[in-house]
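Project outcomes to date are best conveyed with an example. Our students and postdoctoral researchers have been running inverse folding experiments weekly, and each run begins with a structure described purely in tokens. The record below, which covers 147 residues, was selected by the lab manager from last quarter's runs and is presented without edits.
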């Protein structure tokens, strides 16, 4: 099995100059122009909605955590008795705050991805043109494989 992998890699490098659709590259050196596709708009809306949902969820969880924190406050002259129920509520509030911070981070990452996707959706169409001489080809030489 280990000897088959190098053979497959060499075969892939040798065939790498051929096109995937089976047609030959233009021999006259004329550019092979391809229009790069834009991502669908539904991706932009989906990532934007997911980011907004994460921010809303973070706000709700943070609000609940703040409400639980206010239960820990009391009168200085008559502090509340620190019972196991109060301790459990404090732990739940901390867990809710941690979850809110996590959703803020995930929402920020989704917002960055959404901005990049919308930038790609709204850009002008680009074309990638290459000539036959510019295509990558593997050269086998005594010094090794060169690209």
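After processing, the design step wrote out the following sequence:
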């Amino acid at each position: 099995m280990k000897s088959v992998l190098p053979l497959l890699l060499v075969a892939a490098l040798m065939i790498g100059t051929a096109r995937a659709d089976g047609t030959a590259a233009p021999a006259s050196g004329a550019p092979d122009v391809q229009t790069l596709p834009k991502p669908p708009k539904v991706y932009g809306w989906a990532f934007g909605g997911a980011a907004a949902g994460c921010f809303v969820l973070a706000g709700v969880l943070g609000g609940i955590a703040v409400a639980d924190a206010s239960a820990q406050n009391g009168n200085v002259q008559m502090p509340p008795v620190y019972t196991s129920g109060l301790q459990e509520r404090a732990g739940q509030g901390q867990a809710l705050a941690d979850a809110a911070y996590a959703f803020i981070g995930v929402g920020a990452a989704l917002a960055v991805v959404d901005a990049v996707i919308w930038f790609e959706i709204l850009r002008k169409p680009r074309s990638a043109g290459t000539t036959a001489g510019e295509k990558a080809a593997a050269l086998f030489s005594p010094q090794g494989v060169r690209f």
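Residues 37-72+82-127 form one domain. The helical segments are 4-15, 41-72, 84-122. The training component of this project remains on track.
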